[in-house]
Amino acid sequence: MVSAGDIIVLATHNVGKVREIGQLLATYRIIVKSAGELGLPEPEETGATFAENAVLKARAAAQASGRMALADDSGLAVAALDGAPGIYSARWAGPDKDFLIGMARVERELKNRKTTDRSAKFVCALALASPDGRAEVFEGEVRGTLEFPPRGDKGFGYDPIFVPDAFTQTFGEMEPAQKHSMSHRARAFERLVAATGLARGSDC
Ligand code: ITT
Predict the structure, then answer these.
(1) Which of 15, 85, 122, 150 could join 92 via S-S bond, C-beta 3.0 to 4.6 A?
(2) What separation in Å is there between the alpha carbon of 76 and the centre of ligand 1?
(3) Is any ligand 1 atom within 6 A of the Cβ of residue 72?
(4) What are the DSSP calls for 10-29, one per residue?
(5) Among this protein's residues, is 203 annotated catalytic?
């Protein structure tokens, strides 16, 4: 579905995702243009799952641009909050997308539940769509624990409160390469690479 030299539209307006997906794609011979760069509109996320929203965004960008498009729908699922904020992770940060607000809401809701369970996972669905509407989805997740107050400014979104299992630093404190060695996004990306046979630049 994707070959060396192809141009792929990255169907996201989130700069944190653009940066991370750009790093994950860096060794592959494909040219990435972001939806923002191409002035593509942001479709409404009406799906009920990460996968549905990812497909919706990828299809909209593929149809509008006439090129293959890659979309990422992701979020934080907190066990004691029955999986919330989940697909509403961006919306919990309010209209200004202020993740200090989103993280404070997670902390507040956990306090309200009067539980000591702080387990959570990040989930990512990557959808690759072609202009004719065909789409494939690849998912990944990483499990961890939430810690407050937030720590670190290296990531984005909810990274400063998420400590992956077997580590002590939050994603916000880790170098990008370390986050990529275990993240939900990197795991979904590994599946995409395996399924599409995407070749590294040096292999071509
Ligand atoms: P696009 O739809 O344009 O891609 P968005 O920010 O609205 O951008 P989502 O609907 O997928 O994207 O929202 C997911 C939110 O979950 C995102 O805004 C982040 O705050 C959070 N999130 C996803 N992956 C994350 C990660 O690796 N680290 C921290 N937070 C993450």
Answers:
(1) 85
(2) 9
(3) yes
(4) E----HHHHHHHHHHHTTBS
(5) no
* Beta-bridge mates of residue 30: none
Is the beta carbon of 89 within 6 A of some atom in ligand 1? Answer: yes
Assess whether the C-beta atom of 12 lies below 6 angstroms from ligand 1.
Answer: yes
Region 45-56 average pLDDT: 97
- Residues paired with residue 146 on neighbouring β-strands, in sequence order: 162
**Strand-pair category, 119-129 with 68-78:** antiparallel
The fold of the 7-196 domain, in CATH, is Maf protein (3.90.950)
DSSP conformation letters of 140-192: EEEEEEE-SS---SSS-TTGGGEEETT-SS-TTTS-HHHHHTT-HHHHHHHHH
Amino acid at 117: D
Burial annotation 68-88 (CB, 10 A radius, 16+ → b, else e): bbbbbbbbbbbebbeebbbbe
Asked if residue 9 lies in contact with residue 61, where contact means CB atoms within 8 angstroms, the answer is yes
Q: Please name which of 90, 21, 98 lies closest in space to residue 50, comparing C-alpha atoms.
A: 90
Give the residue whose CA is nearest to atom 18 of ligand 1: 90
Ligand 1 contact, 75 CB (< 6 A): yes
Of these residues, 6, 72, 73, 165, which one is catalytic?
Answer: 73
Nearest CA to ligand 1 atom 20: 157
